[in-house]
Amino acid sequence: MTIPDKLTFLGTGDAMGVPRLYCDCEVCMEARTTGINRRYRSSVLVHGSDGEFMIDGGPDFVHQMELLGKRQLRTMLVTHPHFDHIGGLPEWADACRWLGEKGEMYAPQEVLETIQSQFPWLSRHIKMQPCDSGVELAGYQIRTWKVNHGKNGYSYAYRLEKDGYRWVYCSDSINLNEQERQQLYHLDLLVLGTSFYHELAEFHTRSVYDMLEAQELLRQIKPKQTIFTHMSHDVDLRQKYDLMPDITLAETGMTHILS
């Protein structure tokens, strides 16, 4: 019997995570106690019988690995070179050094170049591999493309296909044009970043969809299932939001079967 692949949400938070250091709002206070709303910076682990890989390794990387009981990681995909997505790379490289093995990091060439400029010594312990033309990891055929990240510039999304199952990881995007949406059609699952339920900041200052805007996108692309991630302290998992029935809000440690 074949065991299906799993997607584990290691982090579901925005760039600051939850709780925010300075904040005593209800969500941050709850995150400090019972912890339903505790959110590390956004990251997922794809794992199954054909192997495993992580998508993004932010500043909570070590704690996320400890929660998994893992001491080593071989492969990572990176969406873009912002600190909340790459802040853990030096610690990953240090682990590779001590374990005597070289990690493999895949990202589009321009992402790799930025990472190399920020951490010029990283390539001694992690092999930088461009994936602009696609890559196969753990049996998945993976394609990537640039998406609008609003005032924060750009990010990349990943479309993964295996055994007829199609899903996309798109943690940081907003106001996608039709060309950027093309890879979002005919999906079994979309993992999409939504920092707020309804964000009130002026649009030109923003960088990630809110949930109401995301629902408009979903009505056009019609994925079978959607999981929202990259959530700020505006989102309270104890509340019931007015969302479409096939939408789930990611929780720290949550797993989803990829089949």
UniProtKB/TrEMBL annotation:
Reaction(s) catalysed by this chain, per the record, are: 3',5'-cyclic UMP + H2O = UMP + H(+); 3',5'-cyclic CMP + H2O = CMP + H(+)
Q: InterPro entries attached here?
A: Metallo-B-lactamas, RibonucZ/Hydroxyglut_hydro
Q: Where is the Metallo-beta-lactamase domain?
A: 40-230
Signal sequence extent: none
SUPFAM superfamilies per record: Metallo-hydrolase/oxidoreductase
Primary role: Counteracts the endogenous Pycsar antiviral defense system. Phosphodiesterase that enables metal-dependent hydrolysis of host cyclic nucleotide Pycsar defense signals such as cCMP and cUMP.
| The protein, known as | MBL fold metallo-hydrolase
Give the species this sequence originates from. Paenibacillus shunpengii
